[in-house]
Amino acid sequence: MKPKWMLTTVGIASAVAVSLAFTGCRDTDYDLGNVDKTIGIGGNFESPVNNSTVGICLDDVLDLGENNFLKVEEDGNYKIDVVDDDAFVAHMWVKEFSVPSKTYKGTYNIDLGDLIPNASPRRANRADDVVSFDESMVNMDFIYEYKTDQISRLEYVGLDNAKLTINMVFSDGVKKCLNNIQEVRFTFPQCVECGKVAFMGDSLTLAAGNKLILHDVNPANDLAFVLHVKGIYLDHTYGDSYMTYTKGEGFKFHASLGIGGDVKVSDVNVGEIRNAGRLEVQGTATLSKMNVISARGGFTPTRNFGKVGGVSLRNVPSFLNDDEVDLDLYNPQLNINIDSDVPFATKMKGSIVAKDSKGNTIHRIDVPQFSYKANGKSVISVRRRAQKAGGDTTVVVVSSLSDIIRHIPDSIALVDLVGVGDDSETVNIELGHNYAGRMVLSVASGIALAENAAVVYKDEFKGWNEKVKDVSFVETKADGQKVIEGYLKAIANVENKIPAYLELSAFGIDKNGNEIGSDRLEVTVDEVIAPSKDGVTAEPSVVTVKLQPKDNAVFQVLDGVGFRVKMMAKKSGKPAVTGVLLNAYKQTIKVTSLKLQKIGKIAIDLN
Q: pTM of whole model > 0.85?
């Protein structure tokens, strides 16, 4: 984009060009001090003066053309504003996994205490003619190796249709001795989130403490039921029941199935006890294959993306096409706009590349790690300088960011992006679900110059030939060489509100639009137009343009002057002006006094 400094140059160039065009009112300041009264060939020669030119603003001069990235905002500030045409959608997920089925067997001996002749000290409790027993029957320990980098820690895993199937077989001794068991209690591991129990066609709800309570159980019939397992907690230990997860190793499960009951003495066939043998209950617990479909914890899935969107800078304005253009912006911004439904924050790093129209990399810079939040919209604003940001914007400072755009590229893209889940927070996720982060790249930056900025603008003013073709200065000889004793000089008083130094150079143009070589016409401009320090207060300068002919014949082809303006944030030996936004309407350059002088001996045609 052509900074406003260019406008300044154009304004001066325009003003100087007007005075050199020899049109308008007569020059009352015409200097005749050294005019030779020699008769020459040519027509009448008029010299204008313009003592009150109107300030020329940047918008009057800069032609933005059909470019897609440089705009003027409502307040007049120039801004780079271009958004990626196509959003890039990045998916992230944590893989589902399964724990194989496990089957466990156990045996429990019912202790009827002092009802058993010659019994050892009883463990069972007897009260109100009821014998109670309660003990672990089946141990269900297992270790499952599951090595993944996607899960760092777990507090809970949700299961899909997992079941714990229990089969209980009473020994013949139990069947002989017990007519009825008043209450049978099964205690499932406390770390297990239990659902309903299917038993004899009914759907039963567990009591507190993960207990299934059955009443009036007839030992003549074996028991079978199915517990639906919804999930397993890993966040803390429930007594002697727990599951743990260690990253890089897997799972360890330690738990047991407990059995307990109450038997009325009246339901015991005491006479059968002596010959009944072992009063035994054999249990089988089968934990089905556990498909883990959800989890709570910290997750670190990693995704790699070669290229994440990009913006194209189309139809670059002519004032940005010069080889010496250095668009060293004070604080350019490249924004990564993200709309994510990923349930955990994601840490990212990557690189920004600028490429030419052939796809060749012009410049590449690495972006330090940044994060975007979970479940929402974020803006990652990569900037050259630190700056406060509100809302959901995170500023990432890359001091070399201006290098990406200073030599206008054809495209800018984010490449070699690596995203890793941020496990610093505990979140709930669905395993195997494709969460999506929608990313749109944009460049949005006010145009303010940095220290090394330099913009070159060229313009030319023609159509003078009819006015100057008969101009002729007296020629003399010195040391055998022909010398033209005269030149044209324009002096301008300039007021500049543009926050940039303006350095002008000029050359003559002939009737065919070609540059006239300095061996025939030397055009020089002294002084550099001083910059406004704040873009508001005008800074005065005096500029002199000198046209020195090397032969009088040059006026026969001279048709105008070409100007080359270099806008700079700094000038050797002078303080730099940086960080001031360029404004199309408020920043002007004004020539308050313009005087054209003909210096030397002029050949005058009196006919």
A: no
